[in-house]
Amino acid sequence: AMSIGVVGSYFVFIGSTLSSMLFPLDSHLTPAVMTAIILPVIVLLSFLRSYRFLAPTSILGVLAVVAAITIVLVDGFTHHSIGPIASYPPASWATFPLFLGNAA
């Protein structure tokens, strides 16, 4: 059940992200429409018996993660400062459910 929930939420995340990127170009590309458009791609990928021939595409994923980490670190060091440890709360109950979703 957790795997289905994670895949479902990731699927909706992809649709809403693509919609937010492409909505200025065409107002018909709502999150529901984008989710429906990517549905056949996800279904076709689920029928693959082996992902061996998709392995070279993992290089793009690794490069994207390295780029994202670099961008976050550069932005953090240039626009934000670190305060004393006592200034940070140990937990924020308002955002704790978001942590549980990411941790799962």
Detail the topology: elements first, then pairings.
Blueprint: H1 2-22, H2 31-46, H3 58-79, H4 96-103
Q: How many DSSP helices?
A: 4
Evaluate the radius of gyration: 19 Å
Q: Given the C-alpha coordinates, what overall shape results?
A: extended
Q: Kindly, what is the distance between the CA atoms of the first and last residues, rounded to a whole number of angstroms?
A: 12 Å
Q: How are helices and strands ordered from N to C?
A: HHHH
Extract low-pLDDT stretches. Answer: none
Residues in helices, as a percent range: 55-70%
What does the average pLDDT come to? 84
Structural class: mainly alpha
> How many β-strand runs?
0
How much of the sequence is in beta strands? under 5%
Please give the largest β-sheet: none
